[in-house]
Each structure stands twice: as C-alpha cells, then as structure tokens.
Amino acid sequence: MATDPLERFGAVPSFTVSSDDVADGRPLSREQWGAGGGGGDISPHLSWSGHPAETKSFAVTIHDPDAPTGSGFWHWAVYNIPSSVTELPTNAGAEGGAGLPAGAAMLSNEMRSKSFTGAGPPPGTGTHRYDIVVHALDVEHLDLDPESTPAVLGFNAHFHTLARAVISPVATAGDI
Asked: Are strands 170-172 and 161-167 parallel, antiparallel or unpaired?
C-alpha cells in the first residue's frame, strides 16, 4: 500500500510551496488546530514558485490521509485561483472567502463548512499528516457544482494537473 496518497496518480513535475506558518514534517501550531480542540481554525499562509509557465490556474487542498475514516479527512479545498496568484495569506480560508483572490471558490470540507477546518486527530490514532497540495492546472476554470465535494475537485484536477507542490506538517492528539 502506498503511503503517498498522490503516488497512484502517476508522476508529474513538482514545484515549491512554502509557508510562514507551517513546515514539512513539523507539528502544526495552535492556530492550525480546530477550534473544538483549542485551536484557531486558521488556514496557513502559503506561497509557491517554480510552477510550469503554461499554468492557467491553481487549486489548493488540505487533506489528512491518516484520519480513521477509510477515506481520510478533507480540511480545505479551493479552486479557480488565477495563475497570477502565487500566495494565499494566513486565514485565507475564513468562512465566506474574503481572504481569497477574485474568482477563487471554496468547497465544503468534511464539516460541511466552506472554510478551513483545523486539525483534530482523535486520541489514540497516532500522528497525522496534513497534505497541503498546490495543483498547477492547464485550465483557467474548473466548472464544478458549488456543492461538490473536495473529492470531486480532486477527480477533476487530476485530469488537468501539470505539476504539484506538497508540504506536509503533522499533528498528534495532545500536541496542543
């Protein structure tokens, strides 16, 4: 069984994603934890570079493949980010999308909220990875039903992905 949830989709070129708020393999800060567990439900700052010149838009997803569900847990899904945008500020995932660039849209996460929902690994489930993926797409616009799920976004993005950038911070119950 693959430990990389994107491995089965085949190789695509990679580019760089970085953050002022999270780091690959490092524990999430209190702000990126869910409000129900004492956190802030604040989406992390993200910045990316080195994507293909032919990129026409971006999608950003945050998924916990280690959630005890059989299908993981979607924390955030944003798409139709214009190709001219290469950064999302801290808390761009606030309810209502005011921190998103014009034209970008959010889908409901597992909590049925069109916002970022922070980490909340249940006790006894070990360390969870939070795969933050920036997808560089070959289309300006994905025509999705606004009530689609993040999995539907992933399905559609799969067929238009030119490259992707991944950063995976972690969280373990009791970290905050």
From this structure: unpaired
- Nearest Cα to 93, choosing from 150, 161, 163? 150
Query: How far apart, in whole angstroms, are the C-alpha atoms of residue 129 and residue 116?
Result: 16
Tokens matching residue 176: 């905050």
Residue 4 domain flag: no
Q: Mind listing the pLDDT tens digit for each residue in 16-40?
A: 999 999 999 999 999 999 998 899 9
In a domain, 124, yes or no: yes
**Whole-prediction pTM:** 0.95
Query: Could you list the residue range(s) of the whole structural domain that residue 128 is in?
Result: 12-172
Cβ pair 120, 109 in contact under 8 A: no
Residues in the chain: 176
The HSE-up count of residue 108 (CA atoms within 13 Å, CB side) is 9
Q: What is the pLDDT of residues 41-92, one digit of tens each?
A: 999 999 999 999 999 999 999 999 999 999 999 999 999 999 999 999 999 9
57: domain CATH number?
A: 3.90.280.10
**Closest C-alpha among 22, 15, 21 to residue 169:** 22
> What percent of the chain shows pLDDT beyond 90?
90
Q: How many domains does the chain have?
A: 1
Residue 155 included in any domain:
yes
Q: Does residue 47 form part of some domain? A: yes
Contact 134, 58 (CB under 8 A): yes
